[in-house]
Amino acid sequence: MVKKVAILANGGDVSGFNAVIRAIVKTAEHNGVECYGYIDGYRGLLKNEFIKLSSRDTASGILTKGGSIIGSSTNANVFNYKVEDNGKIEYKDLSEICVQNVKKEGFDCIFTLGGDSTQKSARDFSLRGLNVIGVPKTIDNDVACTDITFGYNTAVTVATEALDRLHTTAETHDRIMVLEVMGRYAGWIALESGIAGGADAILIPEIPYDIKKTAEAIINRKKIGKNFAIVVVAEGAFPKNGDVEIKNERDNGVGVINVQLGGAGDKVAKELEQLTGLTSRCTVLGYMQRGGTPTSFDRVLSTKYGAKAMELALEGKFNVLTILKNGKLDSVSLEKVVGDNKEIGAVQGGTEESNVRLVTMEDDLVKTAKNIGICLGN
Ligand code: F6P
Question: How confident is the model at residue 191 (pLDDT cuts 50, 70, 90)?
Fold first, then answer.
């Protein structure tokens, strides 16, 4: 019998975190279950910091609110955690402290709201004896086993609106307007917003691009009298025989992302200007995609995911991820979600072993883009 549960939000913020939290809290309350929220994701689990969540006060009025009322942590791999002691940096497996904290507080289930790294840690905790239920989050839409993550639709909507606005300048000034969107390993945001925003070229990490081919597509437009172009570039896009553009590097150990991407859009804009003779400008959308109020789609999806997660807990179905498959809510074992990334503590997304959901060439979005003549850089 589930009587007391806790939620943690982990990884980069997305619009919809709070809507999931609200749905879990409300479903819990309807079933006489007490609900708590760890502060700052896995860090809260480690420090044993949490608050009581109630639809009357702490979790009231949050459906439309961006961010997460219980915070979220990035780069918190508690299985290989960066510890500084007298200036000496060490990496330690502190997961047992977390397990003991959960047991001490008597939480019957932990809901892990997050992307592939978060769900990998969730699976590792399930092997250490905790009851966990994951809810798939990321604006990148790259969590395995589900058709969609919460936060993604809002990001696509923001990117689409940006493209609509950039179109005006492109058309008025005969320019190439490049929009760099997020998408570290997966190009879903670029692809979907690009189609929605009428892009002429979309460059994604899954298809290493040929800049000459991309320029050719724009020159062909010029030949029919279209002296402007809209190009969407995922931050993780890179040229054939080239590398991703890196803005910053840090050392937070293995199992977390140590590289901040940036510059892919600028590079494409400069090269296209040289090759086509059209003035090019790049806009980096950045964190605009992750913040602010969720779209109605994300509000509903997040509510469905949260309510389903609590329903699963009430049924005693643990160590699973709530998913949406072919329009239906379902769940899948966390073991399946991590795929071949089996080693406990090795959580970084986008590595060879990790199981992120990338755009495939068979996807309807790719086929649609090709059918209507959008250049995918190849
Ligand atoms: O994982 C989602 C994401 O939006 C990536 O596309 C992006 O590279 C990353 O977050 C940036 O996160 P931060 O700057 O917060 O580390």
Answer: very high
